[in-house]
Design a protein that fits this description.
single chain; 237 residues; mainly alpha; Rhopdopsin 7-helix transmembrane proteins; 3-stranded mixed sheet; 8 helices; transducer; cell membrane; GPCR_Rhodpsn_7TM; GPCR_Rhodpsn; receptor
Length: 237
């Protein structure tokens, strides 16, 4: 991840301009953090303890709740600390690490939601084959695919972001190391990074669509992505 940057750390501006309101924000975000954690833990516990919920739909919901907990832990604790801290810096490596896990869990969550949609499609449209289509082995493979794909995308994308030269300001106008605010600090043309992200994402999407057995299913899936793809082509064209 080495580059020609003169920046060794980033300063997270976050809510620093709000003065005393930061105490109010701390209380609000702390409550939200505890609600998110307790809510997801309750969901996981209920699914684990109630045997009637040991179905693919609730299995995916439980995995999504676990992923949501880690996704929240990546962002909120550091943000809460920064609301009380005068020195709000993150080292180059710490910022890259936060972005890696943030992107990894974010993409994993999106893929899991897609799998949950497929599960409902199989239950409604293929009820006779549902037990085969969504066996526990298949469910495990789908979850593993979501997690591996999510972190592979992050493993490719995060080094691309931090391989850009950062030679100007180190002030990130955000409360954590998100992709867009960090890319804005680069001294090079950064359009290539989001374009690569989009290409990688569509590579996974096309790979998934091609696995759909029916031609009608493939056509519907491609038509769903067509409008966004047109916008991307126009934007970069």
């Amino acid at each position: 991840m080495a580059n020609s940057s003169s920046i060794t750390e980033f300063l997270l501006l976050g809510f620093s301009s709000l003065g005393e309101l930061q105490l109010v924000l701390f209380a609000v975000f702390l409550c939200l953090y505890l609600i998110i954690l307790s809510g997801n833990i309750i969901i996981i516990s209920v699914i684990h303890l109630d045997h009637s919920l040991h179905t693919p739909m609730y299995f995916f919901l439980g995995i999504l709740s676990i992923s949501e907990i880690f996704y929240t832990i990546v962002i909120l604790p550091k943000m809460l600390i920064n609301l009380f801290s005068v020195l709000r810096t993150l080292s180059f490596v710490s910022c890259a690490t936060q972005m890696f896990f943030f992107v990894g869990f974010a993409v994993t969550n999106c893929l899991l939601l897609g799998v949950m949609g497929y599960d409902r499609y199989a239950a409604i449209c293929q009820p006779l084959q549902y037990a085969i289509l969504m066996s526990w082995r298949v469910c495990g493979q789908l979850v593993a695919t979501c997690i591996i794909s999510g972190f592979l995308i992050s493993l490719v994308g995060t080094p691309l972001v931090f391989s850009l030269p950062f030679c100007g300001s180190n002030k990130v106008n955000h409360y954590f190391c998100d992709i867009s605010p960090v890319i804005r600090l680069a001294c090079a043309d950064s359009y290539i990074v989001p374009l690569i992200f989009i290409c990688i994402s569509y590579g996974f999407i096309v790979h998934t669509i091609l696995k759909i057995p029916s031609a009608e299913g493939k056509q519907k899936a491609f038509s769903t992505c067509a409008s966004h793809l047109i916008v991307v082509i126009v934007h970069y064209g």
